[in-house]
Specification:
Chains: A alpha/beta (615), B alpha/beta (335), C mainly alpha (120)
Largest sheet of chain B: 5 strands, parallel
Strand content of chain C: under 5%
Low-confidence stretches of chain C: none
Oligomer: heterotrimer
Mean pLDDT of chain C: 88
Shape of chain B: globular
Radius of gyration of chain B: 19 Å
Number of strands of chain B: 14
Number of domains of chain B: 1
CATH topology of chain B: Rossmann fold
């Protein structure tokens, strides 16, 4: 008899569901991929449906259903926060009472209405928010024992936790509580720099290398006190999140010399410097915290989760510092991963199922390819019904060769193959691919395909065995969670004189070749690396391998298959729509190839620029 | 949600072969597994039969395919559990008329060895038989009209039309006024507005009961053109099949819950059985033995398809009939 | 929810906030009680707090109060009493009322006839 657990995270951001059987992750997906609403916080009807589909199980046959946090404690925090903040917090109370008291508290009723059952237990289980994060980081990791750090905006009360995982057991022994939050601090800067909270943090990190950390001292002196052990407290007088719906207030604005940047307006030196300053602060906290955690636990390895753990620049610094022998980060580190963590925690801590560690030393996240796949027969059924012309290449080697040739010819390819990724990064299942050797790839992809800000760098997918040929890095980075420098001998000097003299125009920097793989080399000569191992995703590995055969480079550009503001595509229908809306040249839907010039005129029934709110 | 069906050049469509999916539904969602021929059946269709195994070929629409419930809860699958050594090959095709079910039989079943052919005709299917087009939902949730194959009766002979049916959707505006009459709506156009109104005020069931709802007037007379086509299809199908045939009219809930008078359709199906010599099983009397409350539970709150309880009741009604028929066949009582 | 119900609920929320919650907050503030620190403490050695519950036992997966309205009020009272905030327990009855008014479980669309199938 197997034990099957459904985990659900919802009602904050990135709602998701996951299903675990005998401690093994069977499926996980974010609701946004199905609902097509980015970071969808609503109840994950579709994601749950998919998870039950993948496990092919009746809801009544589930052993347990678990929600990823404790709504009662969340309500406790909401109420006390408003009591501390006073009458100005009325708007916040109005919103929170509706979302927590009216909705989240009664998640059980949503589940019953959606799938008709709470499983064999006939009651809903709950975990603690940061326990879910910790479980999502530790259980799938390759380690029998590991130190744990979780860092996010806020759970019920906790914003940071430190602990230790050993076999089945997870222990969290230290924490920092709301309103002191590294996640909220970083989000405040995200907001101030004109990006969207809970999604633009990644952009802020990408912007940091353009700037100088000139505001670092102001941050340290006024906003945050960091102790030697990496613990910190914020001065909440500078933040808006206690009593309003915005992250910063006038005091914050005055400290940094003006109002927040208007979204979509010109990015100035101030934003670049703000980004560099907060990035430096964040790295300092994380490095100190890692040292403290090492001291407290004595563990050789570290695992991390929570939204802040997606800061791959900071992760790269931790790795480089060598505080721990090795570390592993949950690729769906934000709240979505909480669904996986909650279900794993119930498996191991409630049902006492022994934890299975991958004997080959790799993790049990299965490459994070945990979402839905569509069989070639389903793709053909779709194309056939619509009458879209395609060429089918059933031989995987020939297919990989053809795709590699197209990329080497400078074309942009939409690549849809196998199970969709779980987590914010596209890892070669729902990706747009290009040639990293070409200088124009970055601007073409940004402006004609993704329709996003031109400063944003693209990431490389590199053959696992070739990673050190391109980057100063020996370890694997299968989830694109590590940043590493491009090897010095590949780098080219840049002329930064004008930029350094105060010209804010980033395009003068962006358009310069920085290395022999310019499309994936950021302005600081770093890259956010994905290593591709043949056992994780053979089809994708072979495309890169064939590209290497053709060009000598075992590396390609990989960006998520979507346009700006759109969730990554999930189904063949989504992929086709995105393909036709952009200037991609070729769409690969499993073993079917579709050329843009052969497709009939696309009748777009919606204005996607309005449908997808800019991120 | 996944695409479930693919285009078929004769039948119009079928399930995508090999599909495994879960369909969200008011009942909590259900699992479907499709075999490699494109039918929602746990078994792949094999021509030869193993010794000692009794095999039934089951045809019908969504009530037989099991919309709303997982494969294992359908009456066809329950029969396998109740009757020893029984294989049920389920050819149920949602949204299909008896004409398309017959085409599915001709395309996929004629060579398959079997003991019994069970044709489950959902009473409303007569409307689909009369239709040349049918509305479906596309990926954006919009209603789109597709052509379907259909039969015409010309001088007593069935003539197949619209094969292959057009792949692309058809705009209703592009059809002639005459052709527009042949868009199968599946439900009851004459009373549609009234039903909509009473549904809005929550009196649908009561209103139907009060007027002894005449669900399908096509059955009123043996001379009705729609019925004539339906009857011709059934007769040709039954007569062409070499094995014994069991014909089973499946009553919509209005009859199960005594809101309508079933005598008209019952008479028509008796006529077919009598003309062809096939067996007829009308499950309605068995279903009416349950309390009204239980019968209400045979359909979902909003979806009129059978719940697991509805399927179980139908299987219970069929089991003794089928068991006896199969035993008799084994002992050579029937041809 | 219809707009009349929305309006009534908003009135209830407003009344609770200004007539119950804020006066109690003021009283606690006057007594020098605070739920959390809002500023760093330069004298502190560390900001890490030792957690009371360090592991999840099977029983800690069960949260009373989220299963029905019946247990909600008592769950709030128990939580605040155990935390040493018994002053808050008097808010519980009104919070139960608010929860009932705010309760919202979204309906899935039922506009489509079950006889219209998804083809695409």
């Amino acid at each position: 008899m197997s034990t099957t657990i459904l985990g659900i995270s919802a009602f904050y951001h990135d709602s998701a569901a996951a299903i675990i059987r005998d401690g093994e992750i069977i499926a996980a997906a974010q609701e946004e991929r199905f609902s097509r609403k980015k970071h969808d916080p609503r109840f994950p009807h579709h994601a749950i449906n998919y998870c039950l589909e993948e496990a092919f199980i009746e809801s009544s046959e589930l052993d347990a259903v678990v929600f990823y946090d404790n709504p009662l404690f969340t309500w406790d925090r909401v109420l006390k926060n408003c009591m501390m903040a006073g009458p100005r917090s009325f708007d916040q109370f109005k919103k929170a009472s509706r979302s927590v008291l009216g909705i989240k508290m009664w998640v059980k009723d949503y589940i019953i209405r959606s799938i008709g059952s709470l499983g064999k237990l006939d009651k809903l289980l709950f975990t603690e928010h940061h326990m879910s994060h910790a479980a999502s980081a530790f259980y799938p990791s390759p380690f029998q024992k590991a130190a744990i750090i979780t860092l996010d905006g806020v759970g019920e009360w906790a914003t940071t936790t430190i602990g230790l995982g050993t076999d089945n057991r997870i222990e969290l022994f230290q924490e920092i509580n709301y309103p002191h939050s590294l996640g909220l601090l970083y989000s405040a800067f995200t907001y101030y720099c004109g990006f969207k909270v809970n999604s633009g943090e990644y952009k802020l990190m990408g912007l940091a290398p353009y700037g100088e950390p000139i505001y670092y001292d102001a941050i340290r002196e006024n906003l945050i006190d960091i102790k030697e052990d990496g613990s910190y407290n914020l001065n909440t007088e500078y933040f808006g999140y206690l009593d309003s719906s915005v992250m910063t207030n006038d005091k914050f604005n005055n400290l940094f010399g003006g109002s927040p940047r208007k979204p979509e307006s010109y990015i100035t030196r101030r934003e670049m410097d703000m980004a560099a300053s907060i990035q430096k602060t964040l790295e300092e906290v994380i490095l100190r915290m890692a040292l403290h955690t090492k001291k407290e636990t004595g563990a050789d390895n570290l695992v991390m989760a929570g939204g802040v753990a997606l800061n791959c620049v900071a992760n790269g610094k931790v790795l480089k510092k060598g505080i721990f022998d090795d570390f592993w980060i949950q690729p769906a580190a934000s709240d979505a991963g909480g669904a996986v963590g909650a279900a794993l925690l119930v498996s191991h801590a409630y049902f006492d199922i022994p934890r299975k560690i991958n004997p080959n030393g790799r993790d049990t996240q299965r490459g994070s390819y945990l979402g839905p796949a569509y069989k070639p027969s389903e793709v053909v059924a779709f194309l056939g019904r619509k009458g879209y012309p395609y060429e089918r290449i059933a031989n995987p080697q020939q297919l990989a060769e053809k795709i590699a040739q197209v990329i080497a010819d400078g074309k942009i390819v939409g690549y849809f193959a196998g199970r969709m990724e779980f987590g914010p990064r596209a890892l070669g299942a729902r990706s747009i691919l290009g040639d990293p050797r070409r200088r124009e790839t970055q601007s073409v992809m940004n402006l004609k395909i993704k329709f996003r800000e031109s400063f944003r760098p693209f990431a490389p997918s590199v053959l696992a065995e070739d990673v050190s040929e391109f980057f100063e890095m020996e370890s694997e980075s299968p989830y694109m969670l590590l940043v590493a420098p491009v090897r010095k001998e590949r780098c080219l000097p840049m002329n930064l004189r004008k930029f350094q003299e105060g010209d804010d125009n980033m395009s003068a920097v962006i358009t310069q070749s920085r290395s022999d793989i310019p499309a994936v080399t950021h302005v600081d000569y770093s890259a956010r690396v994905q290593t591709v191992h043949p056992s994780d995703k053979p089809d994708y590995y072979h495309v890169i391998k064939k590209f290497k055969d053709l060009t000598g480079y075992g590396i390609i550009v990989n960006t998520s298959f979507n346009v700006r503001g759109e969730p990554i595509v999930c189904s063949p229908q989504d992929a086709y729509r995105c393909f036709m809306r952009t200037e991609m040249d070729l769409l690969v839907l499993e073993d079917c190839l579709l050329w843009k010039e052969e497709q009939p005129a696309f009748e777009d029934t919606e204005d996607w620029r309005k449908t997808y709110e800019l991120d | 949600m996944r695409q479930s069906f693919e285009y078929h050049p004769v039948i119009g469509y079928r399930f995508i072969p090999g599909l495994k999916a879960r369909i969200p539904h008011e009942g909590g969602g259900y699992l479907i597994r499709v075999n490699d021929c494109g039918f929602r059946c746990e078994r792949n269709f094999i021509t030869e039969k193993k010794p000692g195994i009794r095999r039934v070929l089951l045809f019908g629409d969504s009530f037989t395919a099991g919309d709303g419930v997982s494969n294992k809860y359908r009456y066809g699958d329950l029969l396998e559990k109740k009757i020893p050594n029984l294989e049920v090959y389920n050819f149920g095709l949602p949204g299909a008329g008896t004409d398309q079910q017959y085409l599915a039989y001709k395309e996929y079943a004629t060579g398959i060895k079997h003991d019994l052919l069970l044709i489950a005709v959902q009473v409303e299917n007569i409307r689909r038989v009369a239709g040349h087009y049918r509305y479906w939902l596309n990926e954006r949730g919009e209603q789109v009209c597709y052509a379907k194959p259909y039969y015409e009766l010309v001088d007593g002979t069935l003539i197949l039309r619209n094969v292959p049916p057009r792949k692309e959707p058809i705009h209703e505006a592009d059809l002639s006024k005459e052709e527009r009459k042949f868009i199968a709506v599946g439900r009851f156009p004459k009373l549609k507005k009234m039903v909509k109104l009473v549904t809005r005020v929550g009196l649908k069931d009561l209103a139907q009961k009060a007027i002894r709802y005449q669900l399908a007037p096509e059955y009123n007379s043996p001379d009705n053109p729609a019925w004539q086509i339906m009857r011709a299809i059934l007769e040709e199908w039954i007569n062409n099949n070499r094995q014994r045939v069991l014909l089973m009219p499946l009553p919509p809930y209005q009859y199960v819950e005594e809101m309508g008078d079933p005598s008209h359709y019952q008479a028509r199906f008796r006529e077919v059985a009598s003309a062809t010599g096939c067996m007829l099983h009308d499950p309605l009397p068995d279903l009416l033995k349950y309390s009204l409350e239980e019968r209400r539970g045979f359909r979902f709150q909003k979806d009129v398809h059978l719940t697991p309880q509805g399927h179980a009741a139908l299987a219970t009604s069929l089991t003794p009939i089928l068991e006896k028929l199969l035993d008799d066949l084994e002992q050579g009582v029937h041809k | 929810m219809n707009s009349t119900r929305d309006d009534d609920t908003l009135l209830e929320v407003t009344r609770f906030f200004f007539e119950e919650l804020m006066p109690l907050a003021k009283k606690l503030q006057d007594e020098g009680k605070a739920f959390f620190s809002v500023k760093p403490n330069p004298n502190a050695q560390t900001y890490y707090k030792k957690r009371e519950k360090t592991i999840m036992h099977p029983e800690s997966f069960e949260v009373v109060g989220c299963d029905s309205f019946d247990s909600f009020e008592e769950a709030l009272i128990d939580m605040w009493t155990s935390q040493g905030y018994s002053e808050l327990t008097k808010l519980a009855p009104t919070l139960l009322k608010l929860a009932k008014s705010l309760y919202f479980v979204e309906e899935q669309s039922e506009d489509i006839s079950p006889f219209i199938y998804v083809m695409f």
